[in-house]
Amino acid sequence: MVSDRKMRAIARKIVEIDPAFEKIVKNSPLCEISRKKYQRGHYETVVVSILSQQLSTKVADTFHRRLKELAGGYITVKRVSKVTDEQMRAAGISRGKIRTIREFTSAVESKKINFSKLSSQSNQEIAEELTAIWGIGRWTVEMFLIFHLGRLNLWPVGDLAVRRGWETIHNLPEKISEKELDLFGKKFSGFESVVAWYCWRAVDGDNPTW
Fold this sequence. Notes:
Layout: H1 4-17, H2 22-26, H3 42-52, H4 57-70, H5 77-82, H6 85-90, H7 95-109, H8 123-131, H9 138-148, H10 160-169, H11 178-185, H12 192-204
Helix pairs in contact: 3-7, 3-9, 8-9, 10-12
């Protein structure tokens, strides 16, 4: 967990390194990454990320609610294992996502993915285990690492909103590539996730002054 004091220090450091962030930092609440305890279990969080792939938040929330209902109110390995493919299809979940959920559930059940080891694993180790599952890619892993595990040192340049946010903050006349943005992240080593959070805020934030 990161204290409010430390997060404020990180915010100041970001502005010190790149003054273009001053306005978005000033007009945003304190970054929430690693300041809150897990709201869901590891398994449910990954399942929700799978359901959320390429969908709006509203639609993803609907599928999450439906799967939860099918699983008797709790998304756990044992309960989801008992939900049939037909039931998930009837709930609107695509065949591809059903396959991913099945393979992920099986990997957790067999201990190929062992959540008890997460705290001692590096970002790369966790990514290698999760992306070995069909249908789980870089974005899903990065969201899990940043928002669930609270890892501060992720730089999700593949996320379109992060790139659009960077462009907005820096008032760029042209779109920035993943490769170009990756290089800029090096100067924020150790707290890249927080920088990404402010980029998201610049695109999706609720502060009208930005």
